[in-house]
Amino acid sequence: MTYASNAFGQLRYIAEATRGVTPGSGNGVNLRQTGPSLKAKVKYLKSEEIRQDRLTTGAALVDMDIDGGFNFELSCKEYDPFLCNLLGQSGFTHYGTNGLGTTFSLTTASGSLTAAAAPTTTSAFTTLAAGSWIKVIPPAGATTAQKAYFADAWFKVGSTTSTVITLDASTPVTGAGLGITTTAGYAISQSSIVNGSTFGSFTMEYALTDIGKFLPFRGMQVGNMDLNLDVGSMVKGSFGFIGQGHDGMVSATTLPGSPVASQTLDPVNAVSDLGAIYENGTSILGATSFIKSMKLSVNNNPRGQKALGIFGNAGVALGELAISGTLDVYVENETYYNKWLAGTNTSLSVGVADAAGNGYIFDFDKIKFTDGGLTTQGRDDVMLSLPFEAFYNAATNRGIRITRSVAA
Question: 179 and 224, same structural domain?
């Protein structure tokens, strides 16, 4: 007899056109994950009838809640539908085609990127907004040093003309990126999403492939995402969901078509793939401050909506978009402790990308540190734990922006 093993488990999903209804056409998509936690919880209500034998006559099923999610190691493109769903967007806004512009001949100076001829249509430099983030994608013939430099480097747009991107002063071209003169084959990459109000849903199914059984969950809305950046570790995270329907374990897949393969880009780590940490527009990545760990959290605060005659949730509603995190930093001076104590508003940007330049930068335009706890016990390093919350910024009309870079 064969018993089910998680070693053979496969999580799949498909977007729903109608919440709670699995599409009849299309194809499910295999999902990379390190541990699923999707589950249904049912509520029994016992009869309160009083009997002379002191026994209860029975109980009835009266409610069901569906939640949980999955853990993952962050890799580019794999989780884009869930990032969009989390922020209330139907998709990324792309520069060029799917976020990658046409190639051009590049000349670099410390504060600018210049094209020999103006890229046109959606790849025009003038479509890049001031204050947005970009990556430069080098050609296959670039030197190893240039490829490594551009894989890590994120640039912020200051202003543009048809042929010149003037960079924000906080993100100059340095090192191996300097001194490029009209070398062909370079491209600009940028796709972005900000907090919005367009929410869809998914049918998610966990396949126990070794025993041929399936657990489908319908009407799944992303409720929250957590990301953890720790020393010597992959960038790990989790998505949490709230759903509407679950029909038990079945013997045939409920998803239409044939499963589409997962993406194959490398997971990013918090060491060689961490290319940018900017606080208040200043780089603090290994320069003036050392950060031991970082946590980022985005929570839609979802709730199930109950209705008479419906077993489970009649709908899903969202509450406050709560954006928070924690920085654990080595104490070098008074800067961050006093920023917390004074209630200073600041900003934070965190960028990761794999060795080819595929990755994300997470932007929080207005944050406030909410505590400044020092660890002063024993003979260990003095650490400063800085929980923070992110808020709406009127100047940019957002609270969070996620920018994606793809190399191909």
Answer: no
Query: What does the chain come to in residues?
Result: 408
Question: What is the residue whose two structure tokens read 């995190």?
Answer: 325
- Please state the domain count of the chain: 2
Q: Give me the domain span that covers residue 353.
A: 6-43+63-92+195-405
The answer on 215 and 165 residing in a single domain is no
54 within domain boundaries: no
Nearest to 265 by CA among 407, 98, 133, 147: 407
Beta-bridge mates of residue 202: 15, 220
CB count in 10 Å sphere of residue 71:
14
Residue 175 maps to a domain: yes
Domain boundary among 189, 215, 240: 189
pLDDT at 289: 64
Do residues 125 and 102 make contact, with C-beta atoms less than 8 angstroms apart?
no
Identity of the residue numbered 208: L
> pLDDT by residue (tens digit) across 44-64?
899 999 999 999 999 998 888
pLDDT in tens, 230-279: 999 999 999 999 999 998 999 999 999 999 999 999 999 999 999 899 99
Biggest distance spanned by C-alpha atoms of the chain: 95
Per the CB < 8 A criterion, the answer to whether 174 and 110 are in contact is yes
Residues 307-352: tens digit of each pLDDT:
998 888 888 889 999 999 999 988 888 888 889 989 899 999 999 9
Strands 164-167 and 201-208, sheet pairing: unpaired
Same domain, 321 and 255: yes
Helix, strand, or coil (residue 105): strand
203 and 352 belong to one structural domain: yes
Whether 257 and 372 map to the same domain: the answer is yes
Return the SS3 of 241.
Answer: strand
Q: How far apart are alpha carbons 38 and 6 in whole angstroms?
A: 13
Among 189, 224, 254, residue at a domain's last position:
189
Q: Is 49 exposed, middle or buried (0-12, 13-18, 19+ CB in 10 A)?
A: exposed
> Which residue from 366, 369, 352 is spatially nearest to 400, judged by alpha carbons?
366
371/225 Cα distance (integer angstroms): 22
Same domain, 397 and 356: yes
Lookup: tokens for 175: 């090192």
**Residue among 87, 5, 16 at smallest CA distance from 245:** 16
CB atoms within 10 A of CB 314: 14
